[in-house]
Protein 1
Amino acid sequence: MSAAVGIGLLAVALALLPAIADRLALRFGASPVAVLAVALLALLGLAAIPVALALWLASGARAGAVPESVALLVLALVCGRAVARATAARRRLRQIGLAASALARVRGDGVGVLPCAEPLAFTVANRTFVSEGLLAALGGDQEEAVLFHERAHLRARHGRLAAFAATLRAGLFGLPPARRAADLLQAELEVHADRVAARELGDGQPVAQALERLGDDEEVRRRLLRLGQRGGLVGRTVVVALLVALGGGLVATVCLSGGQRLAIVGAIACLVGVFAFAWFLVPLLQEERR
Ligand SMILES: [Zn+2]
């Protein structure tokens, strides 16, 4: 099997992975961390594919078929777009944080209350903000559920994982498979925060009631369904096996598709992948074990 076929098959597997994980999670229940790991692997793998293809075209079996400068241009385009997106997102977040801080009245518990009728709750620059509209819509238990949810985002550092996913998605020009993986990742970050809030309250009811009061769209319905699930057949063992198989497949494909340079790139990709998983997912696991 040629390297191109290997890379192509891997791309198809990675593109299908988020949709399959989403369906299995909704049907059988699964740990949000496990689903997040699958979504992250899909994004990392999809991001590695243009790199593998560019290097293979430039220096692999088809040496000379494509000038190296073309491959480098593709890489520069992907990386440039990702960096530009990350910089813009960071700037926007800082502006939102500054604007919210300027408008909000800070309560005794450190929460900023925004004078706004729309029900809002978000955490930016290490501070949680809620709107007057949200406080008016929720009872005491439900307000507490929202605050526990926001604190879970903060403690488990969900923001940096979401930003990383958005950067990869932008680097891949928002292609449908990358969009699907990033959307699943975002949805499961909410599920993770909901479940942590439910555990800390010792009861899932206030979280569910707060969700029901704040919306009735598809995202809310998904979160309510995932909140009601416990454990499930798609356990972490299955997911770990899947991650090892696909991660190994990815690295092997990259390494076997060309010469020494690709082997070095494969080793670097492997290290980056392991580091990314540890950096992003360990805080989530710690949050679950608290
Ligand atoms: Zn949230």
Protein 2
Amino acid sequence: MSQKNCKHLMVKKFCVLGLFDHKPNKDDCLSCDKYEGDSRGLGDDVTKVIKKIGLDKLVSKKKKPCGCAKRRKALNKTFARKD
Ligand code: SF4
């Protein structure tokens, strides 16, 4: 799945969230935890389920990092969708 599927990416590969100096490359977007769009792999699928059931709000009340971004990145890399 390429970076063009993220809803935060505008024309001329401009990231409206300002990540990576507004000019992320494909690898930046593949590892970005703010990505929103079609699933890039299993990590995105798991994240969608977690958000759907509200588990993310429960975890965000805790002070320490949950490791969700790391898990998402690893699962997307290992079980990536084919374009
Ligand atoms: S994946 Fe991340 S860096 Fe890339 S456009 Fe989306 S929000 Fe910006």
